[in-house]
């Protein structure tokens, strides 16, 4: 039975079957990100490392835009599959694919038109401007291919094809890893080389996803033949997609804001934070993989009205995710020195990076709570709740905290601001869950 994993397989087995391929793909993506940073750091050019760190929010923004159609579409489609409305789910998958590609074209045009103000907004100065500019140019030119890759990678999981989703992501990352040393070091392209390798890796993933959708998928499609969609259906996708995308957009905002507040303390500290963010992402991406890997399972059972199974899924998800967060935080805190030294052994980078990393990791259990709750809200179509969480952790709450903390405690106030914002967002998530979905799920389980 095609829907057996969603309806009958024991919760822990179904959850891991859907989530583990996503986690593996996240880990491979993490490896490519770390390799990317490693090759750049091997140049020994602190300004180059800082420049790529300042340009990183542009790539994160593209992930955010891809999530509008990937996570927004998968939320609606998984509920339709739970209601046995497979034909409607297939129609919406066509819209998501082509809308993502067109969005990428629009992004390329707009970001090239407003190139100069965007570069200054990112914090480029006379020492880093050339490096930020090179990275920015090639990443922006590849926007359509980057944005579209995040759509099928999410949609395939609604049909149970988590392994195929993982395969496409891993393929793109492997291509990137292979090309990084060639473009960055052998050809001497530096920041531009890192961006070109990233774009080509995403093109490779896109080609695999297109092949799989044409040859293997039965419930999803990219064929425009007979396609139609109503305004109401577009609104449903956007209602979840925009809050989902804002989560990643806020990540871009959060990184850029952190960089801006660190700039007065020197480019060495911006470079150190760039490396710290890569190490911190080991924990974050694993948690994201386990949280959103189980999203189709949550969305399907919510759509089917199976509250008993949904309750069991949520209890398992919260317990597992929080436990994993604690373990990862402890391991990475103990390994802070060798992990940072893996990238650069510069004494200033090491001196600044170790406390930076440990303070970032304090908020890991709170991030786990926020991720599972956000996943639940997106799966249940609770767009407003998802939006509030999306704009909080690295957005509104983070901005308020970092302004206040930097004023009260200076440099160390900047460093503790993210963990403090994580705690406040977790409390907000708990309150929103209690008032919106707790009684609907628990009272009917």
Describe this protein with a few key phrases:
445 residues; mainly alpha; 20 helices; 83% helix; globular
Oligomeric state of shown chains: single chain
Radius of gyration: 21 Å
Give the overall average pLDDT: 82
Largest β-sheet summary: none
Query: Helicity, in percent?
Result: over 70%
Helix and strand element order: HHHHHHHHHHHHHHHHHHHH
Anisotropy-based shape: globular
Beta-sheet strand percentage? under 5%
Query: Span between N and C termini?
Result: 24 Å
Q: Which structural category do the helix and sheet elements fall into?
A: mainly alpha
Spans with pLDDT under 50 lasting ≥5 residues? none
Quantity of strands, as a count: 0
Number of H/I helices: 20
Question: How do the helices and strands line up, and which of them pair or pack?
Answer:
Layout: H1 4-7, H2 11-41, H3 46-82, H4 86-113, H5 115-121, H6 129-141, H7 143-149, H8 152-155, H9 162-186, H10 190-215, H11 231-262, H12 267-293, H13 295-304, H14 307-334, H15 336-341, H16 347-361, H17 364-380, H18 383-390, H19 396-436, H20 438-442
